[in-house]
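Worked problem 6 (solution included).
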Amino acid sequence: MSRPLGVTTVLILTALDRGVRYGLDIVNRTELLPGTVYTTLRRLERRGHVAGRWEDAEIAAAERRPRRRYYELTPAGAEALSEALERFEALGVDVTARISPAG
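Solution. The predicted structure is:
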């Protein structure tokens, strides 16, 4: 049995589940610190809960900004998120209320 997911991880996975796709957007929507978000995303990638890919350099260059790394929830990540949300719900805690949807 794996260790239960904490609040920070649940917030990040929920943001991805709601359509947020890159790190800075996750930072903005969850109000978590950048170091926390990027460290957690790397850990989630290693665990297979999220998959990441770099956008094409030409797209970033055309928009005159750094390249973004886009993330998506994997089936394993969706399952882990569902289990964590059930656990928090049983405790009467809504850890995801403050996350706005992508848009």
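Discussion: The longest helix spans residues 75-90.
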